[in-house]
Structure formats: structure tokens, C-alpha cells
């Protein structure tokens, strides 16, 4: 049986949301520390911002706003407190972690941070999505694709498709102006694109099992 702060209560959901978003920020920070490339959505935004000659922050804000507008019409239930908290705090948490850790690491340490970034980011996404208090605009894309296909396209597959698509877009824009591809894509980008969806789905299933056991 769940108590006043149990996983099924509003307080429990808010707690999961904040923990999940904190883990996402830590995961993004770990990716940056590893120097093996950025996540798929950042890869696209870096490529396009370089092509347009605008700052990364300004373009990412525009990209999030555009996706958020589409989400509002296609699946407004995905918008909530978690959407706003994710958009505001993930970057700051990642910046803080990057500031706290050494700028130069050995290869084995970089590989460790790549692994930690992959796990933390996926677990964080699973936690805050399971809280059902809204998700970030980009995370909504896979959820919408799953709903539009009535589950024929699983979240895992939809997330992999969306990640690979935005990476290709980012690389295309980067190559169009002959910018350095190493600034936007690397081993970490590929690992994130191929593993993030399956890991998020795996963690979501485990979280639901734990929640069901706590209710009994």
C-alpha cells in the first residue's frame, strides 16, 4: 500500500519528475565530460545553428518552441509541469557538472562517463515520463508516434527513428557549411541514438513493475 508520499500520489509523481530531470541533466553533463559527442537533439541544433549563424541557445529555444506548438495540437496531454522544468533546468545541471569535473580525462575515465551518461539519461527520461506530469517537446515526439500508430510503432523504435533522423539533419546542415563534424557527432551520439530508446523502455517497464508491487 502506498502512503501519502507513495509513488502513485501527486507528491510521489512530482518527486519522480524532479529526480528524473536531475538525472537527465547529470547524464547530459556526463556526455559532455566524456568528449565523445552530444545527444541526438543537441546534435541537430548545433548543426542548424551553425548553418544559420545564430547562437546555439537561441536556436534551441526556437526549436523547442516549434516542437511544443506541434505537441500542443497533436498531444497536449504531454505538456505539463515536467515540460517546463525539463526545458529550464537540464541545461543548468549539465553545465554545473561540467564545471565541477576536470576538463581533461583519460580514455578509461571518458568511457566511464559515456556509460554513466547513457544510463543516467535513459533512467531519468523513464522516471519523469512515468510521472505523467509532462515531458520535454522532443521527448514527446516518440510518444506521439507511438500513439498515432496505435502501438504498431513501439516507443523504443519511434525513439530510435527520431534520434537517427535528427542526427542526420544535424550532420547535413553541418556539412553544408563545412563545419567540423567532430563538434556535433561522435561515439556518444551513436550510442545515445541506438541505446536511448531501448533503455528508456526497459526502465519504464521496471518502474511500472515496482509501482504495481507497492500498490499491492
User: Span from first to last CA?
Assistant: 6 Å
**Global shape:** globular
- Total helical elements: 8
Radius of gyration: 17 Å
Q: Roughly what is the average pLDDT, rounded to an integer?
A: 85
Low-confidence stretches: 1-5
User: Strand content of the residues, in percent?
Assistant: under 5%
Query: How many structural units, i.e. domains?
Result: 1
Order of helices and strands: HHHHHHHH
Strands, count: 0
Instruction: Decide which structural class fits the backbone.
Output: mainly alpha
Helix content: over 70%
**Main beta sheet strand tally, sense and closure:** none
Question: How is this structure best summarized?
Answer:
With 216 residues, the chain is mostly helical. Helices cover 76% and strands 0% of the residues.
Keywords:
216 residues; mainly alpha; 8 helices; disordered N terminus
Question: What does the model show?
Answer:
With 216 residues, this protein is mainly alpha-helical. It has one domain. The chain is 76% helix and 0% strand. The protein has 8 helices and no strands. Helix 3 packs parallel to helix 6. The radius of gyration is 17 Å and the shape is globular.
Amino acid at each position: 500500500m502506498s502512503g501519502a508520499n507513495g509513488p502513485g500520489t501527486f507528491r510521489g509523481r512530482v518527486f519522480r519528475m524532479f529526480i528524473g530531470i536531475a538525472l537527465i541533466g547529470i547524464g547530459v553533463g556526463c556526455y559532455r565530460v566524456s568528449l565523445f559527442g552530444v545527444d541526438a537533439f543537441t546534435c541537430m541544433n548545433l548543426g542548424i545553428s551553425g548553418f544559420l549563424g545564430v547562437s546555439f541557445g537561441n536556436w534551441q529555444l526556437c526549436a523547442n518552441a516549434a516542437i511544443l506548438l506541434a505537441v500542443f495540437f497533436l498531444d497536449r496531454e504531454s505538456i505539463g509541469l515536467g515540460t517546463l522544468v525539463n526545458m529550464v533546468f537540464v541545461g543548468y545541471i549539465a553545465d554545473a557538472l561540467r564545471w565541477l569535473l576536470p576538463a581533461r580525462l583519460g580514455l578509461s575515465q571518458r568511457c566511464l562517463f559515456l556509460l554513466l551518461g547513457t544510463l543516467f539519461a535513459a533512467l531519468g527520461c523513464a522516471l519523469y515520463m512515468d510521472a505523467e506530469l509532462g515531458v520535454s517537446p522532443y521527448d514527446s515526439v516518440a510518444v506521439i508516434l507511438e500513439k498515432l500508430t496505435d502501438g504498431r510503432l513501439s516507443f523504443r523504435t519511434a525513439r530510435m527513428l527520431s534520434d537517427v533522423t535528427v542526427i542526420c539533419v544535424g550532420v547535413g546542415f553541418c556539412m553544408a557549411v563545412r563545419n567540423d563534424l567532430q563538434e556535433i557527432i561522435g561515439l556518444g551520439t551513436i550510442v545515445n541514438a541506438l541505446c536511448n530508446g531501448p533503455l528508456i523502455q526497459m526502465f519504464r517497464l521496471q518502474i511500472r513493475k515496482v509501482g504495481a508491487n507497492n500498490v499491492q
